[in-house]
Design brief:
single chain, alpha/beta, 5 strands, 19% strand, globular
Length: 192
């Protein structure tokens, strides 16, 4: 395990323990559950971690998280809107969770050139009135060229995004805007 991933996981555990009232669920596609597996290796995580879903294929995203088929068809599984629907889906599926974090991305070798190594992360929260909102979305280009390195790097990015959100407790994101640091238009991956 990379030091970066271990540090990010430790920070998430510490921040959620300090918060006391947050319950987390994860949805991972391209990382295959690596972020969740890293978290559960840290003592104390059971006080706030509700569970995770590895939704690698489109059918799993639809069946387990309620991602809409037309959204997948229009935007592809590697897009901001799909990642946001994954995070929302966690909160629908796991009623105990009030924070859902999701990741999806392309690691190659068959990724479209503009999406190779691109990952999207999203965080959704449940407000006290029960309404879920996307509070943060990110798009990043991975640095590592190898698949194992990309899995570790992407898992760390998801947990770093989550830790950053825990520190700032950001206001709801303006959906439909271009995400900073994104090498592609995050809303439509059909453009060359």
């Amino acid at each position: 395990m990379s030091h970066r991933l271990a540090d990010a996981a430790s920070r998430v555990v510490s921040l959620f323990e300090q918060a006391g009232d947050q319950r987390l669920a994860l949805a991972e596609s391209c990382t295959g559950g690596t972020a969740a597996a890293t978290l559960i290796g840290i003592p104390g995580v059971s006080r706030f971690f509700c569970g995770s879903a590895v939704t690698y294929r489109e059918s799993a995203k639809m069946a387990w998280l309620g991602v809409e088929a037309d959204v997948l068809a229009q935007h592809s599984p590697v897009s901001a809107i799909v990642t946001e629907q994954m995070a929302f889906g966690l909160l629908r599926t796991l009623g105990e969770a009030n924070v859902g974090a999701a990741i999806t991305g392309h690691f190659g070798p068959f990724a479209p050139a503009q999406l190779d190594g691109v990952v999207f992360t999203a965080i959704a929260t449940r407000k006290p009135d029960g309404v879920a909102v996307v509070t943060s979305s990110q798009c990043r280009q991975l640095i590592r060229p190898d698949r194992a390195g990309r899995i570790a790097e992407a898992s760390a990015l998801l947990l770093e995004h989550l830790a950053g959100w825990m520190v700032t407790r950001r206001q709801p994101a303006r959906l439909g805007t271009t995400l900073p640091n994104c090498p592609v238009d995050p809303r439509s991956t059909d453009d060359p």
